[in-house]
Specification:
CATH topology of the largest domain: TIM Barrel
CATH class of the largest domain: Alpha Beta
Order of helices and strands: EHEHEHEHHEHEHEHHHHEHEH
Largest sheet: 8 strands, parallel, barrel
Strand order of the largest sheet: 1-2-3-4-5-6-7-9
Number of domains: 2
Strand content: 5-15%
Length: about 350
């Protein structure tokens, strides 16, 4: 089976220099890809940081995960990501989606499906060097265009189908349950087929919230907070696995229990988890990997091998650290080191042995 490229999406972003140093360290540890969120009120500018990382590294993949068409016009995004690819040729990808904290913390709304579709069409044309009609006096063209792939990050059914029709690849952030993953991939492949694309030709990526914690009860509470975060934004994801939300309305629950800005971004994830302790272990396990490196490795191999038996293989796997690591995360027992040292070699070896 395919051995995915394993990526991390949390780094030391306290300054461009520190980000460059962290990118160099992450590359040396053996990670395949470094992905950077774009959230202007929580982190420094995405493209400045990526430029610093591009100059400091040699082989690691670099990309956004994710940018949106609300806070940056798609033509600005195409220009910026092309410039990054000039610094790191062939190593760059554009992760794109509706927007999360970048829009919500600015008082804006996430992008609608039609807006994301229009943005992808515009960016793909500009990145290919085409002249694109934009309603200006002359067609728009990007003089320094680069062939950067656009990966749509999606969870809802219409967005998944649109990704199958248009995107160069589709990232899903839908949890770990095999039925949910199968239903998600089916949507992507249906969209591809409707556009005359080979459904099996659309590259797939998956993002797993990874609760690396040796204390079982703490790991469980944080995983429950993750499950609540999924329900808060995409309640339909509970349906394929037969799970239910039997608690209060999420917005009222957040107010009553002091959770902010949402269940999976609260600085105190143990408090967020205790607020939704009515959720079961099954809820936690359907939306996170959790436990020690050995336990997480077992769970990850199980999820990926189950998917492969169903004809689903992933080009990218992003292991999103829960909770957010400190900056810098340089301790030998920190997330980046432990995963690279104690988890990824096990996973790669076991997946390779499965053929």
């Amino acid at each position: 089976m395919r051995i995915p490229r394993f990526g991390i999406n949390r780094q030391d972003a306290e300054s461009p220099a520190r980000f460059a140093e962290d990118a160099r360290r992450i590359e040396a540890l053996g990670w395949d890809c470094l992905w950077l969120p774009d959230s202007q009120l929580r982190r420094r500018d995405t493209y400045v940081l990526l430029a610093a990382a591009a100059e400091a590294t040699e082989s690691i993949g670099l990309g956004t995960l994710l940018v949106n068409p609300i806070t940056r016009h798609p033509s600005v995004t195409a220009s910026s990501i092309s410039t990054i690819d000039e610094l790191a040729p062939g190593r760059v990808a554009l992760g794109f989606g509706a927007g999360d904290t970048a829009v919500r913390l600015s008082g804006l709304r996430p992008a609608r499906v039609a807006e994301m579709e229009d943005a992808i069409v515009l960016m793909r044309g500009l990145l290919a060097g085409e002249q694109i009609e934009v309603g200006a006096e002359r067609p728009a063209v990007l003089p320094f265009h680069r062939p950067v792939p656009i990966w749509l990050t999606a969870g809802g059914p219409r967005t998944l189908e649109m990704g199958g029709r248009l995107a160069d690849g589709v990232f899903m952030r839908v949890g770990t349950h095999p039925q949910t993953i199968a239903a998600t991939v089916s949507r992507i492949r249906n969209g591809a087929e409707s556009a005359g694309r080979d459904p099996l030709s659309v590259p797939l990526g998956i993002i797993f919230h990874t609760v690396l914690a040796d204390e079982p009860q703490e790991a469980l509470l944080m995983a429950k907070a993750m499950a609540a975060g999924y329900y808060e934004y995409s309640p339909m994801l509970f349906e394929p696995s037969g799970l239910r939300w039997d608690g209060p309305d999420p917005e009222r629950l957040k107010r009553d229990r002091g959770v902010w800005p949402d269940f999976h971004h609260d600085p105190d994830l143990l408090n967020a988890g205790r607020a939704v302790d009515f959720l079961s272990d099954a809820h936690a396990d359907a939306f996170s990997l959790r436990g020690s490196p050995e336990q997480v490795a077992d769970q990850l191999v199980s999820v990926l091998s189950d998917a492969a038996r169903s004809g689903i293989e992933f080009e990218h796997v992003v292991l999103h650290p829960i909770p957010n690591p400190p900056s810098p995360d340089i301790d030998q027992n920190g997330y980046a080191v432990r995963v690279a040292r104690d988890l990824l070699p096990i996973v790669r070896e076991r997946l390779s042995s499965l053929g």
